[in-house]
Amino acid sequence: MRISGVDGVPGGWVVCVLFGTGRAREVTWTVVPDAASVLAATAGCDAVGVDIPLSVPAGAQRREAELLASARLGRSRSSLFPTPPAPVLDAGSYDEACAAAQAVTGKKISLQTWHIVGRIREFQQVRLPSSVVEAHPELTFRTMAPSCAFASKKTARGAGQRVAALSEWVPSAAALGDLPTAARLDDVLDALACAWTAERVARGTAELLGPGTDALGRSTAIAV
């Protein structure tokens, strides 16, 4: 089995590709500049989990997948930014994005959401194979280790908790022994979490929150 997890890093995306099954896995890491490069780096994978919205709402309503994921995240729901409506993707500045969002939803978008608009746009502009699914690392970690009260991923405690959870799936020494210098620790842990979800998708055991398709025929679901 060949699976992959993808998370954003400054200036691009960190991609982990895992070969094999069980704890005898091989893990390779790369940092690539854009969505097209992500697809090239993950070509041939049985499933790819990406931490970015792969579908966008056409109107004012939030995606069903986000509402379901938010409910599961509880007090950690702030880690899930609302996906902006489609017209926002055409904005060239934060002010333009806020105006576009307000025209559709009656509300401006946050600055944090604006910072991922370009990343969402990248994946809207490429043709996605059916093996690529949307994943959300914080939701994945809580599914992976439901009894753990995860601290912030930016803290040493939170990072340690996530390494411990992942170590039940893939040996941390093998997974984290040769990381790219352009990636931060929280980003690579999130990418591994997306790969965990990708394996569940490949095996047919993943849960799809908000299943359906958008106007482009893309899945609206978040896999977990």
From TrEMBL:
| InterPro entries in UniProt | DUF429
Superkingdom in the source lineage: Bacteria
User: Any idea what this protein is called?
Assistant: DUF429 domain-containing protein
Organism from which the protein derives: Pseudonocardia tropica
